[in-house]
Structures
1.
Amino acid sequence: MTCCLMSIITVLAYILVPISIFKIFLKLTTGWDRSPTCLVGKTAIITGANSGIGFYTAQDFAKRGARVILACRNRQKAEEAKFKIIEATGNPNVVVRIVDLSSLASVRAFAKEINETETRLDILVNNAGLGGMEHQLTADGLSLIMQSNHFGPFLLTHLLTELLKKCAPSRVVNVSSKAADYGKLDLNNLNGPPDSYFTKSRDYANTKLCNILFTAELARRLKGSGVETYVIQPGLVKTEILQHLPLINRLAVQALASITHKNGEEGAQTSIYASVSKDVIGKSGEYFGECKKWRMPSAAKNKELARKLWEKSEELVQLTHQERQLLQ
Ligand SMILES: NC(=O)c1ccc[n+]([C@@H]2O[C@H](COP(=O)([O-])OP(=O)(O)OC[C@H]3O[C@@H](n4cnc5c(N)ncnc54)[C@H](OP(=O)(O)O)[C@@H]3O)[C@@H](O)[C@H]2O)c1
């Protein structure tokens, strides 16, 4: 009996000790934003703010006193998030606006409403994103994942640029991923299934590489306007991002994520840092992780690729000639 108990304790120790050490390592290496920045009088939009990283980013801005616009596609989930944020921060200036980034018409309607009803925009966080789904096309004929993660935010940023410029100094923060390191873009096949066995992960990686290339080219085009833009990677965070995986895979990933991933609040820190810290001023176009400068994937340093992706995106989101002039 004693021998059996000892064996169980030994096995548990072999499992629990490395997990605990890993957890301590994760806590020690997670970057935290310590900026005292007050956001009273400022307005921030966070896309995909009803869950995960976006939720905690929005909650932080509300704590700092901002007017916070939760830009979400599901009204019920967004209203629930709004209620929680108001309750946690005591800031009643939190509103829901509906946008589906996988629809060009929805992005246009959202931007029109913001431009007509908001007097200012100081921070735009392009946070919403999805991953782990089968390749499919949207009603606009674009890849669902590419439109949600890149084309939608590209169009949205374009249509909000005038308001951002009016409120300069202002910021655009794009949420990418370490997965961008594995991106391999084919500009002639941005909406087709990638030519790879690892289709789903390559599809996601490509969208996240686009986020970094977009930021670099946006920074170049915004130079001198007072609007700065940064791109971040949040690390591995336990969120709803892989909700589209088949059940078995999802359960396995979630079990692993409980050990190896940050929680949502930890995952939001670099988004918050890039949005409010004084440290990043003058570093427009740069890439951050763990609240410090992060190594760019080599493909993301290709300026020519960034310019060509921009031009291709202008065409695919059907920007008018006049709209293109906003960011020439
Ligand atoms: N979690 C990670 O480990 C990790 C790592 C690297 C990068 N990221 C990036 O972090 C960002 C936030 O993801 P998360 O991990 O916090 O995942 P999440 O909990 O699933 O949050 C994603 C948010 O985006 C929204 N969204 C998805 N597609 C949308 C669309 N077409 N229109 C409008 N909103 C849409 C979701 O809305 P619904 O609730 O309605 O689905 C949700 O609010 C993403 O850009 C992701 O790529 C995450």
2.
Amino acid sequence: MGQVDGKIALITGAAMGIGAACAVRLAEEGATIILTDIDDKKGESTAALINSNGGRAEYLHQDVTQEDQWIALVNDIGARHGGLDILVNNAGIAVVCESITEMSLEDFHLQNSINLDGVFLGLKHCIPVMSGSGGGSIINLSSVAGLKAAPSLAAYAMTKGGVKLLSKSVAKECAVAGNGVRVNSVHPGIIDTAIWNKMGLGADVPGENRTETSEIAQQAVPGGKLGVPTDIANGVVFLASESSSYMTGSELVIDHGLSC
Ligand SMILES: NC(=O)c1ccc[n+]([C@@H]2O[C@H](COP(=O)([O-])OP(=O)(O)OC[C@H]3O[C@@H](n4cnc5c(N)ncnc54)[C@H](O)[C@@H]3O)[C@@H](O)[C@H]2O)c1
């Protein structure tokens, strides 16, 4: 028996990195995976990898900032799968700016639209279909930057702090409503993915040329240990499963002591 056997799971931003690892691990534990992203090529290949290893996955194009795409996706999942059990609001970007005084309003809105509008829209449109099929588990990707200051990433930290309190508030709404939907946030530390490269800080090829990302971890993380996407995915599997059935409104920090 897998930990999430027979469950239907939607994971956003799952073409690569932490989202792809969540898709792989949830599939290994028995869930049927709907993985979405804006990078169709990588999304298709992640789905193909899961299917070739005996899992069940399909890739669908979705920009999490677009409400009409959420509505169409949730209707499609309801019609074809009869409900939704697990939502991982993972899609995110990090816009680096040395000083907040130099940040353009355009970049500020871009940071917000993916990291906060995307999570808001996921909650808004998935909770009704989840509660209609007996409840479920929502896992929102925050960050250590949602727990403590992140200079040069002030707007990113603001969105991740927002994800934390949005998760807690909606968790309470759902608990009081008795709709069976649990909502928790996950707070990764320094994990080896392409997000560092996109920030202009990390490796060109995550997992291969990790010098810079490793150096960042070396300086910041107790013991200098760099995390891998599966470290986060294992926590997501736990929050998605019945093993965490008494957890809602919680922050699961996975950072090797970075935020202590
Ligand atoms: N890697 C880390 O060290 C780290 C640390 C803390 C938190 N996080 C969070 O974990 C999550 C995943 O990050 P990652 O490191 O895997 O990043 P990543 O850059 O490797 O992957 C992010 C994915 O999101 C997708 N995406 C971007 N904009 C999108 C949009 N508008 N709609 C749909 N998909 C979109 C990208 O195409 C990509 O596949 C993010 O929310 C990030 O903030 C990462």
3.
Amino acid sequence: MKYKHILWDWNGTLFDDVVLCADIMNNILRRRNMGKISLEDYKTVFDFPVRNYYEAVGFSNLDDKLFHDLSVEFIEEYEARKLDFGLNKDALEILQKINSAGIEQSVLSAYSQHTLEEIVEHFGISKYFVRLAGLDNIYAASKIENGKLLIKKLGLNSGEALMIGDTLHDKEVADEIGADSVLLSTGHQSKERLIKAAVPVIDNLLELEKFIF
Ligand SMILES: [Mg+2]
């Protein structure tokens, strides 16, 4: 086995919430007569820190107060609707396969800690993870600091973990914490953007088998 540990991103990687997130942003824009974005536009502009993404969709004078209010507005609708959405279609199968091979797994997410724990439990997959690492706020700025802490807690050395995510930030985090990375093209950023990261880009989670086994 090439890796001791698999680090999973949650949103857009294990959890299929891309359509939900684009839809919520369209509701936010519509309430302000700011037009709308297509799913393709969404995947072209979504970014970390999320604050930059809000600016990219048209909030050019984004101060702390407006960013906070938009974050609250977003997360309220997200929480109300999230259970209408499900796991990525191959998530369960690949989690089981990795688990059966004796490789440990954790989640490293920009989602807030308690909601992350809650939703992972909701889908009955907590048993697959050694640790669930979310943020202590709703602003989704960066996973780098949490990633460093997680790697330390897990006692992993450079090259022993594989990070699986759906954004360029996941690759950035992996580089910072000494993990390899693979990016999934069906998440929050377009394949055209992900390819620029010069790491493997896959179109479904089962393709991971060739990188892990
Ligand atoms: Mg993600």
